[in-house]
Amino acid sequence: MSFAAFARATALHPEFRRGAREMLHVSLGVAAWGLVTGVAMVKSGLTAPLAVLMSLAVFAGSAQLAAMPLIASGAPIWVVWATAACVNLRFVIFSAMWRPYFAPLPRWRRCLCGYFSGDLNYVIFMKRFPVPGPAPEQEPYFWGGVATNWSAWQASSLGGIALANVIPIEWGLGFAGVLALLGVTCSLLQDRATWLAGGTAASAAVAAYALPLKLNILVAIAAAVAVGLGIEAAEGAHRRARQGAEEARR
């Protein structure tokens, strides 16, 4: 199937409209976050063309916001890359969770899904399709959510870039960005493991705040990943022990 035929069939599918509609209720938060990121890129010293390129090419607001202070402070490039990579480690988990749904797709379509994937896309998609396994309506639903999410992000981010020298810092957009990030984070806290990992990350970030070059972010991520993996391993061992005991009783 050619790209044009694929795009036409996807856009006309009923699930595309449903995905776009269900993403609408969070699009205002996405837009606020995008506006903050667009302003922050220019205020940090990037030229408008570079900021536009970063917005379109990176499409990862948390990584952009984490990298901007490092770039502005003249941090070594390896610190910038390491911070962005650590902040985006969650997409490895998202990809693993999406694999049962999208594994049968051609590689170029999976690569497209990878670029356009986002935190809220993941949350809303998993609520719509909680049982892993491929189905024809899943990809149109995914792209419907992407259409709303990506458009809201890019429109507001590019608007922030264009208006960065007009919008005063006194408006407190930085705090609005923090609130937007908190909203996204809270939507991902779904069980005991994620709550404990999130609490650990927050505590570690505060405890290591005095570290230079925003390295407290890396400390927080490492601590949260360690706690999450430890809880998952413990719960897996408990499930296996319980299954073994049940089999022994039989």
How would you sum up this structure in a few lines?
This protein has 13 helices and no strands. It is mostly helical and 250 residues long.
Number of helices, counting only DSSP H or I runs of 4 residues or more: 13
- Summarize the biggest pleated sheet: none
Helix content: over 70%
Find the count of extended strands (DSSP E, 2+ residues).
0
The Rg value, from CA coordinates, equals 20 Å
Q: Estimate what percentage of residues fall within beta strands.
A: under 5%
Runs in which pLDDT lies below 50 for 5 or more consecutive residues are: none
N-to-C SSE string, H for helix and E for strand: HHHHHHHHHHHHH
Number of domains: 2
How far is it from the N-terminal to the C-terminal residue, by CA?
52 Å
* Global structural class: mainly alpha
The 3D shape can be described as globular
The chain-level mean pLDDT equals 84
Your description of this structure?
- By secondary structure, the protein is mainly α.
- It has helices spanning 3-12, 14-23, 27-43, 48-58, 61-72, 77-87, 90-102, 107-116, 119-128, 138-162, 173-188, 192-207, 215-249.
- It has 2 domains: 3-188, no CATH class; 191-250, no CATH class.
- Helix content is 78%, strand content 0%.
- Helix 4 (48-58) runs antiparallel to helix 10.
- The model has no long low-confidence stretch (mean pLDDT 84).
